[in-house]
Every structure is written in C-alpha cells, then in structure tokens.
Amino acid sequence: MIGRVLSLPKRAATGGPQPDAAAMLATLTVPVVLIDGDNRFRFANQAGEQFLGISISQLRGLSLGDLLPADNPVFLLIEQVRAQYQVVVDHDLSLESPRLSKHGVSVSGAPMSDVPGSVLLSFQDASAARTLGQQIAVRGAARSVSAMSAMLAHEIKNPLSGIRGAAQLLEGTVDAADRELAELIREEADRIRALIDRMEMFGEKPVERRGVNIHRVLEHVRRLAQTGFAASVRISESYDPSLPPVWGNRDQLIQVFLNLVKNAAEALVEADVSAPEITLTTAYQHGVRVALPGSTSRLDLPLLVTVRDNGPGIPDDLRNNIFDPFVTTRASGSGLGLPLVAKIVGDHGGLIELNTRPGRTEFRVHLPVMPEDGSVDAP
Predict the structure, then answer these.
(1) CA-CA distance, 146 to 202, in Å (whole number)?
(2) 3-state secondary structure of 321
(3) Burial zone of 344 (CB within 10 Å; 0-12 exposed, 13-18 middle, 19+ buried)
C-alpha cells in the first residue's frame, strides 16, 4: 500500500539538474537514483550503485524495467509521483528479480521539475539491521555451543575413551559374530568423539590476524573443491583485482569459504541440478560499521565476498535459523558447519548474510581491510 504523500512545490524547468544538486546527492549514504520519463537511469550515487549492485556506467544503459518486473509496486509509486507531482513513500516492498533481491525496503519517490517526467527514488534497506540482529543471535548461540562442548569434553570424553578401549580389546577375544558388535561400539565411540571435537572448535580463542590476499584464499578453496567434492560442478569467478588485503587469519578464512562452497556443491548434487554452478565474487564497498566485541572501537567492512549457487534454495522454515547449531537441511549433516562459519566471521569483526530463493542462494561475507598500522584489537 502506498504510504504518506507529501506536497512538493513546482519549479520551472531549467533544462537539466544543477551540478551542486548532483554533488549533494552523491555524498548521501542513502541509496538514490534518478530515472527519466522513460524510466531509464540517469543518475545514481555511490550508495545507489551498491544497493543495486550495478555501476552507474552500466545503469545508464538500463531502464528500471530491466531490473524489476512490470507488476512491481515501485512502478505504481512512480506513476503516482508523476500524476500528482508529490512525494510518495511506500514501505516493506520486495524488489525481486534475477538481477536483484531485496526485501523489507522503503521506497521514496520525488518529482524533479528540472527534468520533466523524471523521478528521484531513494531506498531504505532494512536488511543491514536484520543482519546485525542475526549476528548477535549467532554469537550467543556460538557461546552456548562453546559452553556445552567444554562440559561434554569433561564429562563424556574420558568415559568414552574407556568404552572405545574396552571395545577394541573385545574385538580380539570374541567370535566373529560378537566381533562385529565390538567394532560397531568402537566406530560409534569414534563418531561421538569426532562430534565433540567439532564442537570444541567453538571455543573462545583469540584470532591471530595479518594481511591476507582473499583471492589466494578463494583460489585455494576452488582447487580443493574441484579436485574433490565439487568435481562435477562448474565454479566461476568474478573478482575485483584492486582489493586491499583482508585483516584476517588465512587458515580460518579458508575454512569459512570451503564450508560455504561444500554446502553449495552438496545442495546442487543432491537436487540433481542440470547445469550446477557456483559463483565466487569479490567487491569493494562501504560496509556496515560495527563495534568490536568487548571494545569501544568500530570497524568498517568494505570487502564483500559472495558465494552463490543455482540450487533449490533453503526451505522457508530454516532460513531464520540456518546459523543456529544443529540446524541442517541434510539427513547426514551435523548442523555445525554454518554456525562455525558465522562464528569465525564474527571473530574477524565481520558479518555474514543469506539471500535465498529457488534457483539462487547467496552467502555474502563482509570483512575488514588490513589497517594501515597493521595492528588492531582482535575481536
């Protein structure tokens, strides 16, 4: 439903936008784009380019109809702006297409008298706030798993070792039928111990960080994937070669992206996608400023790494809890892979967010750059 309508006084056309107005719009942190009477893009500030994921040089060759279907409520908003020559605001919109996936967006449209028929659109995206809330929940869940793993290690590992040792001794003293049962006991003891070992990875340990070339990390992950679990999946890359180093731990970052690529590959294979593909992309953008845990300082997160696949997507009932421990889409999964990914990203002072729908699942990881002095308090 169309929201508030505000009056805007008319002004005489002057033949084009004033340079000072364009300069002011360019400095705004709110995404802003200008479309002409044919709904073609004429201007976008930096925040607008990042919101749409398209540079202004590319946008100038596109119309709004190239990004959104004709029945999207944004077109109705634009028509009302032109018909009534008023500012119109609509809330909680979805901007969904093969090129764009934004939800819970507020859109404001304003007429521009300098260019007849043109409309200035601004967007307020609630996804950043949702992502921050998810990160708080994920870190709380990680702390719970850490406490649980410490308890399990103390209360279960020692007796489990005794059970395994006894089963191993029995294997050499019993007949063939009972030996099979002893082997089963030993194997199950090993499986439980491996699960506890994985949970211990959630322990609170300081992260040793240095400047890391994220493209070398992703290339290493791609080679591992294509020589193993993703041998039948096409992996494409779209990298920004000018990215500065990530401020992180190389081994842990490899673990993050190896887990994400492995999950994507397994989803593609299980769904029997006809042309399975995983796309790895990097980009530089102004990220969300977040406070480091236990610190009053804040970090910019301008480095964006995206892992995208063309699989079936994540079911609706799991999307809000996908980073919680023991939540999994696979019968054989432990449900600890994505929680560990979220914890490592959080330990780096970063953010991870999920966008998913049938045919497209995208994990977006926001990371900090290496500081000029090469030192920062580890989160």
Answers:
(1) 5
(2) coil
(3) buried
pTM: 0.57
Pair 269, 232: CB distance under 8 Å: yes
* Domain locations along the chain: 2-125, 130-200, 210-367
What pLDDT score does 153 carry?
63
Q: Give the DSSP letter string of 13-68.
A: --SS--HHHHHHHHH-SS-EEEE-TTSBEEEE-HHHHHHHT--HHHHTT-BGGGTS
User: Tell me: the pLDDT tens digits for 11-30?
Assistant: 433 344 444 566 777 777 78
CATH of 210-367, one of 3.30.565.10, 3.40.190.10, 3.40.50.970, 2.10.109.10: 3.30.565.10
Distance between CA 207 and CA 78 in Å, rounded? 49
Identify the three-state secondary structure at position 268: helix
How many CB atoms within 10 Å of residue 81?
23
At 114, which amino acid appears?
D
